[in-house]
From TrEMBL:
Protein name per Swiss-Prot or TrEMBL: Heat-shock protein
Pfam families recorded: TetR_C_23
Residue ranges occupied by any Tetracyclin repressor-like C-terminal domain in the UniProt entry: 83-209
UniProt superkingdom: Bacteria
Organism: Tenacibaculum discolor
Highest classification ranks of the organism: Bacteria, Pseudomonadati, Bacteroidota, Flavobacteriia, Flavobacteriales
Length: 217
C-alpha cells in the first residue's frame, strides 16, 4: 500500500491522540508512522520527538481557542474582562472535547513532575494572549518597574488558568457547570483586585472554594 502524502501537523496530532487513548504511547516514531501508513521522515517535518508533539498539542488548544475568538466579529470590541472570560470558556470547551486525553496526561504529571513541561507551549500562548489584553495597571513612571508589573500580572493569570484547569479535572458536576461558575468568580475577583474594588467578590470566591472543598485551598 502506498504511503500517505501531504502529512500535516493536525493529522499527526489526531493520530497520536487516538493512539495514546487506544493502546498507550507508541513504542517508537517508526512504529507510529508504520501504524498510520506514512513515512517516518514526515513526522520530523513537524516534530522532533513525541515529547515535542505533546507540548504542541496543548499549544494548539490555546491557538485554536484564540482563532475561534477572532472569528466572532464582536470580540474585538469586548472589554478585557469579557475577552478573558471568552478565552476560558472556549478553551475549556476544547479541553472537554478532548477530556480523556487531557486527563491521561495529567495522571502522568501527578507521578512525574518533569511532565509539567508538556504545558510549556500552552504557557507561551496564554501569556502572549494576556499581554495583548488592555488590562488596567498602575503607571509607576519607571520603565523597569512597569515591566516587572507586566510580568507579574501575566504570571498571575497563568496561575489562575492552572487553578481552573485543576478544578475542571476534579469537577464531577453535570456539563462541568461548577467549572463555569468557578471561572466567572475567579475572573471577577481578579479584576476587582486590579481595580482596588471591595473584596466582596474575593470573599465570595473563597466561600465557593471552601464549599467545594477544593484541594487548591
Amino acid at each position: 500500500m502506498a504511503k500517505k502524502k501531504n502529512i500535516t501537523q493536525e493529522k499527526i496530532i489526531e493520530w497520536y491522540m487516538n493512539a495514546v487513548l487506544s493502546a498507550g504511547k507508541p513504542n517508537s516514531i517508526f512504529s507510529f508512522a508504520q501504524e498510520n501508513n506514512f513515512e517516518e521522515a514526515d513526522f520530523y517535518k513537524h516534530f522532533s520527538s513525541f515529547e515535542s508533539l505533546e507540548k504542541a498539542i496543548f499549544g494548539v488548544f490555546a491557538k485554536e481557542t484564540i482563532h475561534l475568538l477572532h472569528k466572532t466579529e464582536a470580540y474585538k470590541d469586548y472589554p478585557s474582562k469579557d475577552k478573558l472570560l471568552s478565552f476560558y470558556f472556549t478553551f475549556f470547551e476544547l479541553l472537554t472535547a478532548n477530556r480523556s486525553y487531557v486527563l491521561l496526561q495529567f495522571k502522568e504529571m501527578k507521578t512525574d513532575f518533569s511532565r509539567l513541561s508538556v504545558l510549556k507551549e500552552l504557557r507561551v500562548e496564554f501569556i502572549d494572549f494576556v499581554n495583548g489584553l488592555d488590562l488596567e495597571k498602575i503607571d509607576f513612571k519607571n520603565e523597569k518597574v512597569n515591566k516587572i508589573q507586566d510580568k507579574t500580572v501575566a504570571e498571575g493569570y497563568w496561575m489562575q488558568l492552572l487553578m481552573i484547569l485543576k478544578f475542571w479535572i476534579d469537577d464531577e458536576s453535570p456539563n462541568f457547570e461548577k467549572t463555569d461558575l468557578f471561572i466567572e468568580k475567579s475572573v471577577k475577583a481578579s479584576f476587582d483586585i486590579q481595580q482596588i474594588a471591595p473584596v466582596k467578590s474575593v470573599i465570595d470566591l473563597a466561600k465557593f472554594l471552601w464549599k467545594e472543598k477544593s484541594p487548591m485551598v
